[in-house]
Amino acid sequence: MNLTLKNLLSIYVLVIILVAVFGSKIYITSQIYYTSLQINSLKNRLNLLIAENKQFHAMLQIERYKNQVTKY
């Protein structure tokens, strides 16, 4: 079976198209993965800050109560 120049060029074009499609899919998938890791890290930090804020709010309420008690 002889390959003509036309057949050879069409195979090269097909291979280039396939590499472009699958290469871009792999790139996009990896970018989504790393972005989701960053989002999860930020969500963890947010949850930590929310918990810390609750503790500070409770401490503030205790100090306000102490201030009110010592005033009178």
Fill in the keyword field for this structure.
72 residues, mainly alpha, 1 helix, rod-shaped
- Main sheet characteristics: none
Helix content: over 70%
H-E order: H
How big a fraction of the residues is strand? under 5%
Distance between the terminal alpha carbons, to the nearest Å? 105 Å
Catalogue the unreliable spans. Answer: none
| Beta strand count | 0
What would you call the structural class? mainly alpha
Short description, anyone?
With 72 residues, this protein is an all-alpha fold.
Written overview of the protein:
- This protein is mostly helical and 72 residues long.
- The chain has 1 helix and no strands.
- It has one helix at residues 5-71.
- It is rod-shaped.
- The model has no long low-confidence stretch (mean pLDDT 94).
Secondary structure: elements and pairs:
Elements lengths: L4 H67 L1
